[in-house]
From TrEMBL:
Transmembrane segments annotated in the record for this chain: none
Name this polypeptide is given: Pyridoxal-phosphate dependent enzyme
Key words of the record: Pyridoxal phosphate
SUPFAM superfamilies per UniProt: Tryptophan synthase beta subunit-like PLP-dependent enzymes
Family membership noted in the UniProt record: Belongs to the ACC deaminase/D-cysteine desulfhydrase family.
Species this chain originates from: Chitinophaga horti
Residues in Tryptophan synthase beta chain-like PALP domain copies: 21-273
Listed cofactors: pyridoxal 5'-phosphate
Length: 288
């Protein structure tokens, strides 16, 4: 299984640098990527707490919503998701699939969503176990520590894409070497603190978040990103998503081109999945 999950992509990089990609996109057809790792200990905790259902939060294209709906269907958990914005006449493919998986959708206005911390959801839904938006909590980070159990090579640099920072925190807690998160958000400098809050004392890794590779902001998928994703696929056979992993690998390429990696560096890039999000792109823009 490990061999299937890890692909060498060295020929794609210039200079004297080796790179491999850990293909979490191939873990499971529906719950791919990092989202399963963020959910697994949360679902266990829900069971231990004697809860009867799951409650979570997300937007119309959220990979977390997609993964939670599929995971709950398979584990026979009823689940409710609070969704940002009014219910549209036609649901996004993500929400349509989530509903088909049995997830109940509760639409609230964007303003109410932004202020959702002010609502006491636990009091409103006492039978529900609450998984925060994006799976961002200690148990989410703990699950992401297990990602590195699947890696079977040494590395000097570890890369992952950053949304809430939960995955990065898990990797820092379990990893070594230089761990670099590429932020998918524009100017989200508070991520530094969010990740720090999930770190174990005494972790050995040297980590940083790079903020200059969002290509216009969260969810903005410009022609540059699309062109890169197509090139990357032609050269490696690996599909990337436009929101996270496409921008992460574009950042790796730019860093390599500017000589960031000393000769002999061994990169391990985590493919955190998210391919369902590509369904929201116009048909035909991607070659895969
Ligand atoms: C959610 C997601 C991320 C971000 O993970 P965080 O733990 O929130 O930082 C990265 N890549 C993909 C494909 C995702 O779906």
């Amino acid at each position: 299984m490990n061999e299937l999950l890890q692909t060498f992509i060295t020929t794609w990089l210039p200079h004297n640098v080796q790179a491999a990609m850990l293909r979490l996109d191939r873990l499971h057809p529906e719950i791919q990527g990092n989202k399963w790792f963020k959910l697994k200990y949360n679902l266990e905790a829900a069971q231990q707490a004697g809860k009867r259902a799951i409650l979570t939060f997300g937007g119309a294209y959220s990979n977390h919503i997609a993964a939670t709906a599929a995971a709950c269907r398979m584990a026979h958990w009823p689940c409710l998701a609070v969704i940002r914005g009014e219910r549209p006449p036609v649901l996004s493919h993500t929400l349509a699939k989530a509903e088909a998986d049995g997830m109940e959708l509760l639409f609230i206005s964007r303003e109410a969503y932004r202020d959702k911390q002010q609502t006491d959801w636990a009091a409103l839904f006492p039978d529900h176990y609450i998984v925060p938006e994006g799976g961002h909590n200690d148990l989410g980070a703990r699950g992401c520590e297990d990602i590195l159990d699947l890696a079977h090579t040494t590395y000097t640099h570890l890369f992952c894409a950053v949304g809430t920072g939960t995955t990065l925190a898990g990797l820092v807690n379990a990893g070594r070497g230089e761990i670099i998160g590429i932020s998918a958000l524009k100017g989200a400098l508070s991520l530094q603190h969010d990740v720090q809050a999930l770190l174990k004392p005494g972790h050995a890794a040297n980590w940083r978040i790079l903020h200059d590779y969002h290509e216009g902001g969260y969810g903005k998928i410009n022609a540059n990103v699309i062109g890169f994703m197509n090139d990357f696929f032609r050269q490696t056979g690996i599909p990337l998503d436009g929101v996270y992993t496409g921008k992460m690998m574009l950042a790796v390429k730019k860093l390599a081109e500017t000589g960031y990696f000393p000769a002999g560096s061994q990169l391990l890039c985590i493919h955190t999945g998210g391919l369902q999000g590509n369904l929201s792109l116009a048909p035909g823009v991607l070659c895969f």
